[in-house]
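Any chance you'd type out a single protein's sequence alongside its tokenized fold?
>
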Amino acid sequence: MLLFIQKYKYTPQYEYVSSMHWIVLFICILISSTIIFQVIHICSSNQKTSKEQLRYLYLAILFLLYNVLNGLLPNTSLPGPIILQYVITYGISIFMCIYLIWYLYQEFNIITPYYIFKVKNLTILLLTSFLLLFITPSLLSYPLNLSRSLFLILPIILSSIFFIHFLNIITKEVKRQYYFKIQTYLGLCSILSIVLLPLLTFFGDFQPITQPIVSVAFFLVTTMEINSYIYRLKNSHTLKLTIGHQYNFTNRENEIALQIIKNNSYKKIAKNMFITYGTVRKHASNIYMKSSCINRKDFIKKFKK
């Protein structure tokens, strides 16, 4: 492949901007505001900080770092080799994409059957290809643009296959409640936004285009979180008490508890939430234990109005 690119001089032209574009700056301000709000919310809450809250906060920080670093680098006026700046920007970009995939796996309780699409293996594969196809050729005095083009071929192919894979997994069940359909479509669009990153980067480093498109993934995830909160708020009237806070339920346990109160069967809950029957039973068991209930019947009797 390297010989092919060299022979036909297939090296896309890139444009670099050393100063941050105003669109990227605006995105950074929005994400920073979100981080500040989340930190204040966590610190001011009397409840124990949940894993979901911290997971979202870490995601916001990664997207902020991605926009700041890719907005300011590469900068030839900075001391040190330019390759080091690429290691930093590409490193944070890879880690951000992997973390978003893991985030959505957790959100939708996805356990992929394919070895290559497990988060650990994706991380190893991308970092290894970055080392062998970008850093090594650059250190061997190959043109930087050539090394970039060579490295980006694998992520483009891999991201395209992964999107199809994620699409097949997440859309198997289509006859679900409206809320869960919305969550599914938001998650799918966020993945599409992320998988476009290597393709857009291959044709050019254009801040006003690439970074806003990629950052859409974060705002879609934020919409998912807001939608989840509104769903729980709208359905809170079905409970005698705000048992989610009282018994320190997770977001997933809250959603399942609301459906148990509505007398939905475990099978129906599993279908609605795109999780397995066994996962619902496990969450239900935790719910009963936390709320000091013996079983499903006791839980409904205790909390249903």
About this structure: The radius of gyration is 23 Å. The first helix runs from residue 2 to 8. The chain has a mean pLDDT of 82. Residues 19-215 form one domain.
